[in-house]
Amino acid sequence: MSDDSRAELVAGTVVLAVAAGFLAFAAGPRLMPGGGYDLIAAFPNVEGIEKGSEIRMAGVPVGRVTEISLNPATYLAEARLRLQDGVLLPADSAAIIQSDGLLGGAYLELQPGGSPENLAPGDEIEDVQGAVSLLSLMMKFVDSQAAETPGADPAPEDAQ
Fold first, then answer.
1. Which residues contact 66 (CB under 8 A, 6 or more apart)?
2. 3-state secondary structure of 43
3. Most exposed among 39, 58, 65, 119, judged by the fewest C-beta atoms under 10 Å?
């Protein structure tokens, strides 16, 4: 092997090692198995979030949704949440599905309560708010505007 090809091999190996280190650092705890602890939250509607969705507290990422399944006994969607080890959540905290903009995805927002006791690994967050459908909100707005418009004739029931 010539000196030039050996130098290229060493340089390529160093570049790949640096790139792998950067990716591991950028991904942080998401790629580190075993870190953090799990909580459960049961929602009537989890539209917009999925496995891997971000969990935020005060806008700061603190975890990920690791699993979503339907509970056959309650017919609620149970989300398993993985929070970072240093994040302690009071027992009366709330989990709310928020939209990340009009066209963006959704994330799970945790709003800490005031309880002196914290949730333990495996506990369930009782106070939840499911996803709000923007389409249904717009339809309610349109219907309310049509009802408030003076002189607007309602559509005939048997128009043919």
1. 38, 51, 80, 81, 82
2. strand
3. 58
